[in-house]
Amino acid sequence: MKNEIYQVTENDIGKRLDLYLAEQSGESRASVQRLIREEQVTIKGRVRKANYRVKMEEIVSLCIPEPIPLAIVPENIPIDIIYEDEDIAVVNKPEGMVVHPAPGHYTGTLVHALLFHLEHLSSINGVIRPGIVHRIDKDTSGLLVIAKNDHAHQFFSERLKHHEVKRIYWALAEGRIKEGGTIDKPVARDPKDRKRMAIVPDGRHAITHYTVLQQFSKHTLLRCELETGRTHQIRIHLASVKHPLVGDLIYGHKKQRFQANGQCLHAKEIEFEHPRTGEWMHFETELPESFQRIMRILNQEGNK
Known about the structure:
This protein has helices at 17-25, 29-37, 110-117, 150-161, 233-240, 289-302; strands spanning 2-7, 41-43, 46-47, 59-64, 80-84, 88-93, 141-147, 166-174, 181-184, 187-190, 193-199, 207-215, 219-226, 265-273, 280-284. With 304 residues, it is α+β, with helices and mostly antiparallel strands.
């Protein structure tokens, strides 16, 4: 990751942020806009939009990831494709698998597997993220919709933008939560640590609805529905109300009681309108074994 710092001078006052950075860095404007969307650009530690007008003597930080090789070789990695037609596929991603190539993860991703198992993928996100419309974290398991052509990709992008894709997660949280509710707190990159997300006053709008599925003495199983889909949204939202996820070493307790393969968070259900037929589709999948194992322990303790 290369970090570049620029200070706005008198000649650049009032310029759009994306234009200013393109001129200063030599990167294309489209590339700068992508980095802004990915929250790799900050001013005084705060994320700004591409149309933000820069001010005199502001310090602009630009993080440029290391270049990723453009040639991605399909890999015969077993994946659970639970539905497929000519337009879409629905995949049950295992915990521990990165969705697409990124610094430090150039092989073994879901994209490498998709290129091997599916004949066609949409091209809108380029060669690094073919077919990828939305993502889940490496250590989060569960359902993802894959676009097999550009029409389906554009369709889902619009539906996600207008909150018309229903995504349900099951989460095991620390502590006893008595009743459901809604967390409405803005999320952005942590100004003190760019690898983390945080609740930031001028961050991106983020809403998580949750209901209680099962209570234990010191844990709660939750059903979480995303109204928005920010990076690490459920994890940071629950941590912000003092109920971090079991197994979450970034936002939760450093010492964990259970040996978990990452945080206990599973994208269990997804519902959407089919891009070609208009049919309303619903898919659901079981919790991964590591999540089920912890649930069995908690249920046995509850019966003692």
